[in-house]
Amino acid sequence: MTRQNMTLEVNGRRYDVSVEPRKTLADTLRDDCGLTGTHLGCEHGVCGACTIIVDGETVRSCLMFAVQAEGRAIRTVEGLARGNELHPLQSAFMQHHALQCGYCTPGFLMLTAGVLEQNPDIGEEELVDILSSNLCRCTGYENILKAVLAAAADMRAAK
User: Fold this and answer.
1) pTM of model > 0.90
2) Radius of gyration of the chain (CA)
């Protein structure tokens, strides 16, 4: 199959890649950009481990071809922290024990970052519904919910 040369903008950095048109964005981020924070779980868009933000919207990167992302602003979990300063969600996940094995964590972080950027005043009931779109086999979601609510409060207070 013919490869396509393209440039991706990920976390504010340019990556020149050559991919087959059928290669997923998740695989391209991991294999060609060296950004392994985006995890692959089900590869069917069900588990949410591969969630990233593209042009301000959360996306399951296993369901998007890399060629569809050219010219779009991509954010992965590696782009949440500012240097050595963790994003409020990352800090809250640690403080509230919202992770165990950590496999689903990047997807939850990117899902909730996208949600809080769109709606910083989201209610608990709506947040529970949104969190149910990603799968976690370890924590039972209670601590994830606590962490996101705490981060949302911290983010509102910082404005």
Assistant:
1) yes
2) 16
Instruction: Check if the beta carbon of residue 29 is closer than 8 Å to that of residue 9.
Output: no
31-82 pLDDT, tens digit each = 999 999 999 999 999 999 999 999 999 999 999 999 999 999 999 999 999 9
Q: Beta strand pairing status for 73-75 and 4-10?
A: parallel
Alpha carbon 17 to chain centroid distance?
Answer: 21
Q: Residue 22: how many CB atoms within 10 A of its CB?
A: 10
Domains and CATH numbers, the chain: 4-78 (3.10.20.30), 88-158 (1.10.150.120)
Q: What are the b/e assignments for 78-105, b being 16+ CB within 10 Å?
A: bbbeeeeeebbbbbbbeebebbeeebbb
Non-local (6+) Cβ contacts of 62 within 8 A are 24, 25, 26, 40, 41, 42, 43, 44, 45, 50
Token reading at 123: 């209610």
Q: Distance between CA 23 and CA 136 in Å, rounded?
A: 26
Taking the CA atoms of 53, 122, 135 and 145 in sequence, report the sign of the dihedral they define. positive
Supply the pLDDT for residue 158. Answer: 87
